[in-house]
User: What shape does this take?
Amino acid sequence: MRQVPFFILLIFSSLFSAGQVDWQNIDSLYGPLPASVHVYKTTSRLDGKPNIAYYLEADLRDRGLYFSVDTSKNRRLTPAQFYKKGYDSLALYENFRFPLVVVNATFFSFASNQNLNAVIMEGKLVGYNIHTINGRGKDTFTYRHPFGSALGISKKREADIAWLFTDSSSRYPLASQFPVMPVRDSIEKPSWPYLARQVSVPEHNGFEKWKMRTAVGGGPVLVQKGEIRITNNEELKFAGKAIADKHPRTAMGYSGDHKLIILVIEGRYPGIAEGATLTQEALLLKKLGCLEALNLDGGGSSCLLVNGKETIRVSDISGQRPVPAVFIIRSNRP
Assistant: This one.
């Protein structure tokens, strides 16, 4: 990711001090773990409110780890079911038999069980961004066409966050390293050549093929170039003042020293763990050293398993929410 345009929403760290958050290593509670993977927990308050959060750190350079995704066609599975399913995938992951980490990822449709974000599995695009949002009221006959964000990991084990155009007729998504303002028009299903002509980004150098081995989409982007810059206006993920609502959260980012960071924040438990706003989530990720970071589906979907064991307490009364896709870190050793 390169230079950040001036129109990106800036969030200043004076809103609360992430430096007051104290993280404790709890590897012993989730072992055995490879030396390149660590788990941390905090109960430090956020803006004076009760808080419980965990983050997992994994070294992208460790050849004993395999960063992947899993999906469930036309149905949804809980993270625990994906974890169990991971042991049945030995043909595909012969040298990486152990599903070490499972975390929820994309937003999705409850009606169709469809991923609403890009998903790349073993280099193949298997989930697609939603590029058309219908207008309402007086704007009934207008449409907005956003470019959703995703975090990808290449075959060289390099992480990147970009804004994507996805199409089922293309093998690879097209990626911009700059946030892209949505196109607004009266065309319900515009072609890519048309959209490309409408895109206007300062110093934009065009979309390029994004050849990632693994990727999951979400949004909005929270951290760019190590600073808090939330691209909700570009990605149209949350309406109105919803950016300030507190919920359970899931996010993913990466640091300058090649560490993948997975953050989950417990929420919807008044007086115990009240969740976080997108701004608070972004500030935590910045303090953890992320160069870039991305919000993923949260709320009742938020769930991180390490060696099959839950970290945060999920907020749905019924337990883990079934989801259509998860991000998985597999290990070649138990």
Q: What stands out?
A: Confidence is low (pLDDT under 50) at residues 2-18. Residues 9-127+221-331 form one domain.
